[in-house]
Amino acid sequence: MIPGVPVLPAQSSGGTDGRFLTPAGIPTHGVSGIFSDGATMNAHDLNERIRVQSVLEGREFLHRLVKLYTGPSDH
């Protein structure tokens, strides 16, 4: 969706279902398609906010990703 943007691994301190799935032998990974910067994003704080455009782009990114992995396979 955004050519030239590098993909980097990151670790989040947030809670997920991975704490139950990983011990059961189910590898668990998360993906976020939301771009943010320190000036416009303030998650989980008194005045939590994110740009509307970031939400819309993130939704489209995740929709395409799910379709890619769940769609018909040509291989």
Write up this protein.
This protein has helices spanning 18-21, 52-70. The protein has 75 residues and is mostly helical. It has a domain at 31-75. The model has no long low-confidence stretch (mean pLDDT 81).
Mean pLDDT: 81
* Poorly predicted tracts of residues: none
Number of helices: 2
Give the oligomer, counting copies of the same chain as homo and different chains as hetero: single chain
Provide the β-strand percentage band. Answer: under 5%
What is the fold's blueprint, element by element?
Blueprint: H1 18-21, H2 52-70
Tag the structure with descriptive keywords:
single chain, mainly alpha, 2 helices, globular
Brief rundown of the structure:
This protein is mainly alpha-helical and 75 residues long. The chain has helices spanning 18-21, 52-70. It is 31% helix and 0% strand.
